[in-house]
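Reading a protein record of the kind used here takes only a little practice. Each token is a code from a learned vocabulary of local backbone shapes. With that in mind, consider the following protein and its fold in token form:
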Amino acid sequence: MTRPPAATAPGTPPAGLRDFYEDPSVPVASGTARSRRQAQLLARALGPVRPGTPAATILDIGCGDGTAAATAAEVLAGHRLIGVDWSQDALRRARTRIPCAVRGELTDGGLPFAADSADAVLFSEIVEHLVDPDAALDELRRVLRPGGHLMLSTPNLAAWYNRGLLLAGVQPVFSEVSLRQVHGRPGTQVVGHLRLYTARALRGFLTASGFEVVRIAGAPYHDVPRPLRPLDRAACHVPSLASILLAHARRRRE
């Protein structure tokens, strides 16, 4: 999970959320394996960099400390990768890992880029933190060129183990009822999730936001107990059961 660039529209996160996300103990990255897989999906979509062809402009929205962006840059060599975050503290750390990181917010015109200027957007585990995800997708759609790629990842509410937990009357993994501590579910880490999606809900949300869904794939979750990890990897073959949803969508052409 990368640190959210903005949680509300208009403006930046409310004071409580802003303080929470600025806390250095809150995780700001989801691990290199998932970042690399997402970048590989984008690399295949963009195709090889050819001599005489301009490099694609790729925005990593919510780049946090730049760890995920640095991993993606290795896979997307030859393209122009720009990190974006609202947190000045996160940006200071990101600039030690990637060449370019700028401040921006997911509000109306809050990203410092012209309309139709980006070829692709990486939006890694941000949407589940947003108060107003509709405004965020509107802003991403604005900066993407027609046909531009959106690579979005988010935890899956209907992950295979969450289905069993709900049947047992247990709060699902990834869901949170407090910013202070975990209540009623496995785990101890509070990360500020406000919204959760199933594969069906994510597909409908992206379509309604002006995107054409190319593919939804599954990815494993790094915090699954070790004995269950083979099962978690197997669940990725059925994205609706996977721990993490990886969506590839394209901005619809008018």
Q: What stands out?
A: Residues 24-156+196-251 form a domain with the Rossmann fold fold (CATH 3.40.50.150). The longest strand covers residues 144-155. The chain has one domain: 24-156+196-251. The longest helix spans residues 32-46.
